Amino acid sequence: MLIESLQNEKIKNLIRLNTDNRFRKKSGVFVVEGKQENERAQKFRFESLGIFICEEIFNGEIPKGKTHFVSLKVYEKIAYRGTSEGILGVYQIKDFNLSQYKPKENSSVIIVEGVEKPGNLGAILRSCEAFGIDALIVADAKTDFYNPNVIRSSVGCLFGMNIFAATNEEVFQFLEKNNFNIYSTFMDESAEDLYKKDFRKKSAVVFGTEHSGISKFWLEKSENILIPMSGTIDSLNLSNAVAITCYEILRQKKT
């Protein structure tokens, strides 16, 4: 059966899931758009509740799950990225409780405090996954992990990463309990060069918010480091700073 009406209850539900964070959390489900993203969601065992396909666009093998076929007009309305790839899946939300994480002896984790922009969170996830970071912890989260922009900008890396949400205090207690070396990224006279630190040991690097930087809470509980720069600008975009740090962690572990 082909769904052609925008008044179909399934279609109205999808549109709301894409645009309403509170409705998404209350429903306990979220939307994934694109072939690669849906493949990763299923590879990492997210429970599929339904797949929506526009045959005029889609080219490939249909993933597992109850399949609904929609017209091009309907797909353009439900897709966050317009006519891209012709596939959209609905999945069950998973819990991100930090108590579930059991770090290894030489684990490296990235902590982002109060990240607000979904695109930044997605880009950070992509860097953490690419450079082998063991976990991303979001302290005092201000954005929904299942926002379509997080999934899109992470290219589905959200599904394969260890990602957790907790308060600043909960994160600190977890790091102390598990004997992490804690570093914060704040530029002042006390800061030491990132490249002089030994990240082969169990370590956590904390990054502050996009607007106000790292909070006093972390400055008092960590060793301050910075990325050395030779230009006239004195700061980087949050996701870029995380990417550079992640690469240095990988470089040290490789050598």
Describe the structure in brief.
With 255 residues, the protein is α/β, with parallel strands linked by helices. 33% of the residues lie in helices and 21% in strands. Strand 7 (135-139), helix 6 and strand 8 (163-166) form a beta-alpha-beta unit.
Outline the structure in words.
The protein is of the alpha/beta class. It has two domains: 91 residues, 60s Ribosomal Protein L30, Chain: A, CATH 3.30.1330; 157 residues, 3-Layer(aba) Sandwich (Alpha/beta knot), CATH 3.40.1280. Helices cover 33% and strands 21% of the residues. It is built from nine helices and twelve strands. The strands form two sheets. A seven-stranded parallel β-sheet has the order 8-7-6-11-9-12-10. Strand 7, helix 6 and strand 8 form a beta-alpha-beta unit. Helix 1 packs across helix 2, helix 5 runs parallel beside helix 6 and helix 5 runs parallel beside helix 9. The model has no long low-confidence stretch (mean pLDDT 92).
